[in-house]
């Protein structure tokens, strides 16, 4: 699925002033691209991913997913698109601390009819990425790299066409970072997912073919 941003601006209103994070930003991410949003902390990478994922709305401009303008969708239509088409791997994992790894992964499909098939997939994929033995543990009993892999599985359980990964290698050692990078590449190659990665780490960025360097908006 392709992603198009047309003339996006994002202004946060804080108690004392308005802060313009994105200004007249346009970019296109093609179907099946592996695309890195690169830039220093605070530049607006998470903001941009949240706009693409329909978690937040731009102050002006359009976000189009597969040609559909997100701003014209009703909230239930947007929620459906997010659930079925977009997998979000959050910067802080956002795993629920009182649920075991496996139950965190299942969360997005709890009420789905084909849950049985997906549970078989969980065991298979968890073994492929080396966390099968960790599925019955709570998040705090897992290493950062293991938690990140659980978060990835939760994000992809619905076979999303678009995977948004926010700092997927932050705080991981080289070996674990490589595992995550290989998983994301595998999802792109095997399932044709469009993968968008936000990172401030040059080494991580250099693993992917398309790098979009974010810059501070120029004030008028
Ligand atoms: N809800 C908000 N209200 C006000 N300011 C915000 C809000 N969310 C983010 N910001 C500010 O917007 C800027 C961009 O934040 P964002 O989280 O998108 O940056 P980032 O590039 O993802 O940074 P990092 O690499 O540290 O994750 C920061 O200066 C942040 O403080
Ligand atoms: Mg961020």
Tell me the CATH topology: Rossmann fold
The amount of helix comes to: 25-40%
- Main sheet characteristics: 5 strands, parallel
Q: Which structural class should the secondary elements be placed in? A: alpha/beta
Number of helices: 7
Descriptive report:
This protein is of the alpha/beta class and 220 residues long. It has one domain (3-213): 3-Layer(aba) Sandwich (Rossmann fold), CATH 3.40.50.300. The chain has seven helices and nine strands. The chain has helices spanning 45-52, 75-85, 101-106, 115-128, 144-156, 174-191, 202-205, and strands at residues 3-13, 18-29, 34-38, 60-65, 68-69, 86-89, 162-166, 194-199, 210-213. The strands form two sheets. Strands 6-7-8-3-9 form a five-stranded parallel β-sheet, with helices on both faces. A four-stranded antiparallel β-sheet has the order 2-1-4-5. A hairpin with a 4-residue loop joins strand 1 (3-13) and strand 2 (18-29). The structure holds adenosine-5'-triphosphate and magnesium ion. Magnesium ion is lined by residues 45-46, 91, 166-167. Residues 12, 14, 19, 21, 39, 41-47, 91, 167, 200 line the site of adenosine-5'-triphosphate.
């Amino acid at each position: 699925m392709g992603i198009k941003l047309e003339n996006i601006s994002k202004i946060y209103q804080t108690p004392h002033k308005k802060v313009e994070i994105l200004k007249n930003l346009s970019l296109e991410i093609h179907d099946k691209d592996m695309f890195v949003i690169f830039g220093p902390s605070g530049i607006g990478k998470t903001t941009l991913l949240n706009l693409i994922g329909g978690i937040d709305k731009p102050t002006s401009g359009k976000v189009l997913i597969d040609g559909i303008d997100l701003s014209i969708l009703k909230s239930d239509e947007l929620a459906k698109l997010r659930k079925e088409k977009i997998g979000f791997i959050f910067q802080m994992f956002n795993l629920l601390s009182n649920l075991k790894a496996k139950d965190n992964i299942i969360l997005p499909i709890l009420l789905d009819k084909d849950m049985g098939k997906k549970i078989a997939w969980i065991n298979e994929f968890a073994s492929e990425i080396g966390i099968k033995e960790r599925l019955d543990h709570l998040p705090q009993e897992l290493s950062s790299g293991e938690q990140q892999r659980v978060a990835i599985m939760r994000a992809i359980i619905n076979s999303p066409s678009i995977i948004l990964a926010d700092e997927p290698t932050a705080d991981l050692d080289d070996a674990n970072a490589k595992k995550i990078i290989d998983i994301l590449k595998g999802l792109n190659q095997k399932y044709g997912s469009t993968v968008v990665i936000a990172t401030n780490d040059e080494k991580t960025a250099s693993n992917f073919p398309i790098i979009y360097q974010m810059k501070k908006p120029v004030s008028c």
